[in-house]
Amino acid sequence: MATVDVALTRDITVGRSLRGKRVDVPGVVFQAALLFCLFVCLAFIVLLFGIILDDGLGTFQNRGFVISDFPSELEKALSETWTFLTHPEGLIGWFATLVAFVGLPIAIFFSARGRHWKILIAMVVGFAIVFGIAALVGTSDFLTSDLSRFPERAGVSQAIFGTVFLALMTAVVAFPLGIATAVFLEEYAPATRLIAFVRLNIRNLAGVPSVVYGLLGLAIFVQLLGTDIGDFPVVGGTLVDIFGEGGITGGRTIIAGGFTLAILVLPIVIITSSEALRAVPQSLREGGYGVGATKWEVTKSLVMPNAFAGILTGTILSLSRAIGETAPLILVGAFFGTFFTTGSAGLSEKFTTTYTALPQVVYQWATDAKTEFRLSLTAAAILVLLVITILANVAAVLLRNRYEKRW
Amino acid sequence: MAAGGLIDLTGDRRRLRRERRVRIVFWLAGLSSLAISIAIVLSLLGNSIEFLNNTPLDKLWTFDKWAPRIGKFDIATLFVGSLLVTGVAMLIAAPLGLGAAIYLAEYAKPRVRRVAKPILEVMAGIPSIVIGFFAVAWIGPNIVQNLFANADAFSLAAAGIGVGLLVTPIVASVSEDAMRAVPAALREASYGLGARRITTVTKIVMPAAVSGIVAAMILAASRAIGETMIVALAGGAFGEASYTTKITDVGLTITSAMASLATGTDQVAGGGGSGAGQAFNSLFFLGLLLFGVTMLLNLVGDFFVRRIREKY
């Protein structure tokens, strides 16, 4: 008769010490040390946000966005309901900030647990963000003014335009090319040495420092494609100088910057899309071939739709990387100093003259001689940058948690 | 048409032609990444060769000073600067990242994991310029100046700690993946022999995942060497720097020297024409150096990552 020692079995399966009830001192110390490491990582994030919120919100308050100085402002607001009535947008801003920094982590948490009302939370958060941004734009001239030599007048409107345009251009150039490359590598490529080398090359490109991409952009998009490339034969045999003096990119323009960032994030798009495509089970493809579909038909209507969420997550992450990059922009000539365009300038002028972007402005202000620029204005610009990049990151994490499939 | 209502599916010329077109497009896209690599090397080589032709080689390694404006191009200054920053960064990132990874992979309950991991991922998404600002505004005055009595608010140490925070998520996520790839059977066998958890983790799981952990460190070091904006902001040196081996001094690294070349001298910021001057050419030479070093590290790291993948 075999008997089973229930307690022993349990101890073994949960990995408990079998040496009786003695406390496992090194084990406890080790675990505490590990937990400490995790805690320090999280604490640094909190600290970083604390400092940036502290300095940055002060700027928004000075420029008409009423939410800084949490406790005292709240007290004042509560004692004087009148403040709330005269500044309804201030209330919305408050609400938005609260939801953005308290609600978003909660939303991530619940979406991870797979509850259905997470959609509700996501919607509330989304609305809060939209309203918050509207309230910000409506009340603070920091977001709507141009760069200036005077701290009390300086704003980031040109930088926001630059960042949005660079992001759009990155998406338009890098996403189709990157996803096509990923499809090629996962669906079409034969198992040859050349393809193995291509894969290795892409993994290496993903690790090349961003300054080096800046140099690539400087050499190719600013110098090579930015100078007059001469006449082109058009239909009918006549030679026409299509691009004019500025060449294709026009030299140090936002177009050259956009191409550079697109090349920079291309390897990331390829790698994340490849992973998403690889996660689609082989049986699905075989089912497609079984009913007589060609390779492209299988890829287009079976593989791609199932890999869509993963590809989307990867592309959003790569976009947020592009938005935060500074070093390559410095090299391809995003503008330093102040300039006066955008407001009255036509669209074509925007694409052919000086430009700047949010991270560029942060760098420029952080190295400024004036303290106002160096601290409060830099923090405010960082706040704008962080809101954009973190929203992108959170969206990517939410999407992944929501659509992650278990085959 | 064949008997029994069967249609010859392969015979549709239009579908086959489309298939061929699509295939060509995908081949072109797939090979475009090779073109990018070639473009990088070509665009770096031209000016680098010009730089080397016009600078005596013994002037590149003098342990003196990097000051392009007066024609002093001492690569040793930048090299040691990069080593110091990367060293400090790895001192921060290796224990923090590995500790967090072990906790998440071996100890954390699923619920803790599901909350902590996305936060680490968000940390990985913070732009480096933001961490650079944090290094100047908080790490410099509050950590470095407290640890070293005579330290400046700007220093290589402040930059190094900032870079360390930036690469911590990389160490954490790559080594956590490696440890989770270790089969559960190994752990169960260890527990079956009566081993405690700490023994299982340190004697079984970590040795099994060692190539992944090594890869995490190498990839993080490669990223740390290539990190530009944190050092450009917190390193404290603009345009030129003297040779130093002390982390409390201000200094330049390969990358921050490139950033200040691009913003400081008018050769880059002003002229869009072909390269003028040695300072402009030195920018490309530094780029080539950086490309070579990081490529070497990436390939070695990649080798280790693939080894653990093949093992399990």
Jot down its keywords.
heterodimer; A: 407 residues; mainly alpha; MetI-like fold; two-stranded antiparallel ribbon; 71% helix; B: mainly alpha; 2 domains; 3-stranded antiparallel β-sheet; 73% helix; 2% strand
Secondary structure tally: strands of chain B: 3
Please state the oligomeric state of the protein chains shown: heterodimer
Beta strand count of chain A: 2
Helix and strand string of chain A, N-terminal first? HHHHHHHHHEEHHHHHHH
How helical, in percent, are the residues of chain B? over 70%
Shape of chain A from CA axes? globular
Lateral strand order in the biggest sheet of chain A: 1-2
Q: What ranges of chain B have pLDDT less than 50 throughout 5 or more consecutive residues?
A: 266-275
Instruction: Give the end-to-end Cα distance of chain B, rounded to a whole number of Å.
Output: 52 Å
Question: Most extensive interface, residues per chain?
Answer: A-B, 107 and 104 residues
Structural class of chain B: mainly alpha
CATH top-level class of one domain in chain A? Mainly Alpha
Tally of structural domains of chain B: 2
Question: Given the C-alpha coordinates, what overall shape of chain B results?
Answer: flat
Mean pLDDT of chain B: 86
Describe this structure in words.
Chain A has 16 helices and two strands. With 407 residues, chain A is mostly helical. Chain A has a domain of 259 residues: MetI-like fold (Orthogonal Bundle). In chain A, α5 packs antiparallel against α6, α5 crosses α16 and α11 runs antiparallel to α12. The longest helix of chain A is centred in the N-terminal third of the chain and has 38 residues. About 3% of the residues of chain A have low confidence. Chain B has 312 residues and is mainly α. In chain B, strands 2-1-3 form a three-stranded antiparallel sheet, covered by helices on one side. In chain B, β1 and β2 form a beta hairpin. Chain B starts with 12 loop residues before the first helix and ends with a helix. In chain B, 73% of the residues lie in helices and 2% in strands. At the A-B interface, α2, α5, α7, α8 and α9 of A face α1, α2, α3, α4 and α5 of B.
